[in-house]
Amino acid sequence: MKIAQDAEMRMLDQMAADFAAKELVEAREDHDRYPFLPLFEDVLAKAHEVGFFTLLLPEAAGGGEQGISALSLILDDICRSDASLGGIIFTTALAHEMILKAKSEALLPPVASGDHSYREALIACPSFDNPGEAGNLLQAKGKGKKHMLSGSIEYVVLAGLCGRALLPAKVEGDESYSLFLVDLTSPGVEVSEPVFSLGLHACPACDLELKGVEATLVGRQGEGRAYFDAAVDKMFLAAAAMATGIMKGSFTEAFEYSLQRHQGGWEIINWSEVRMLLASLAIKCKVADMLLSEACRAAEADEAGWGLGARAAAIHVQELACDATTDGIQLLGGNGYMEDYGQEKRFRDAKQIQSLLGLTPMKRLDYIRRIREGEKPW
């Protein structure tokens, strides 16, 4: 990312790039076979040791107290090699950000790197949904901070991997939903087998069934949507960073392949059709990188309208990634569809992350709603 300019950001950039090269590339194919092969828990433990799961948390909670530029930078680097780890980082960061927006960080125990298991740092949540668009929410009964939750909720990311989940539920009589922190080891919690998804196979999700499970209210009752909306402006940038990383990984693999693959007596990069496709892919990567960098800069500076810009950047970059990874497959010919290379996985992952924070058509409708309500489009 262009944003990586000062010494601290350059150090983070290099650390994430080295981590991805060492821990993700060689075993990427095996990692992607989860749940039919074991999860890459050794990699997750190392990711926790270097602080990837606690970037946004304040230092008092064992976090790195970093901004969205740092999170986006790391997700960009990681997702060039394997977006599954990026999905795990994203989901936990989303949960942490909503808790911080609710001013409920006291609910988080210290999770300093090296002192606790990575499972204690992770928090499950339905990161592919916008709870405000859900027709069927969990039901909550109770008063004050303690409530009892009942009902079912689908595709809760990391639910089979960690001990806590941040879940939306509606208290009878309230207009909007509330957020609750749930201990997934509590009696009455049923966790399904991992749901096999299109992409991000090693970022596991499960369905949950809750039967009178005690939960802790996060923030104020009925304010869940406000906390979600406040958090996701920033998290849209993280989602865009994941898509940008996937695109860059696709270009790098296609470019290197075109230099090594011989056909007709010379490297295929000498074919004009190949160069045209490579140029198109490189341009998409550059546009995405510039767009993400500028959107992160605006967010860090708290410029007027940065939230709407973050959403626009994410929607556009995620669509670019779907087109770019299609080109990435084509550039490898038949090999582009083989699991031995990373291109077919990047194609699936790019499609999967389009649904982060809700379906794309709903994001577009929400975007124009905000403009109609008075936000300036530029």
UniProtKB/TrEMBL annotation:
Gene3D superfamilies linked to this entry: Acyl-CoA dehydrogenase/oxidase, N-terminal domain (1.10.540.10), Butyryl-CoA Dehydrogenase, subunit A, domain 2 (2.40.110.10), Butyryl-CoA Dehydrogenase, subunit A, domain 3 (1.20.140.10)
Superkingdom of the source species: Bacteria
Record-linked InterPro entries: Acyl-CoA_DH_CS (IPR006089), Acyl-CoA_Oxase/DH_mid-dom_sf (IPR046373), AcylCo_DH-like_C (IPR036250), AcylCo_DH/oxidase_C (IPR009075), AcylCoA_DH/ox_N (IPR013786), AcylCoA_DH/ox_N_sf (IPR037069), AcylCoA_DH/oxidase_NM_dom_sf (IPR009100)
Pfam assignment, any one: Acyl-CoA_dh_1
Gene Ontology terms, MF aspect: acyl-CoA dehydrogenase activity; flavin adenine dinucleotide binding
Cofactor: FAD
The entry's keywords: FAD, Flavoprotein
Acyl-CoA dehydrogenase/oxidase C-terminal domain segment(s): 223-366
Domain (Acyl-CoA dehydrogenase/oxidase N-terminal) ranges: 7-114
Homology family: Belongs to the acyl-CoA dehydrogenase family.
Annotated protein name in UniProt: Acyl-CoA dehydrogenase
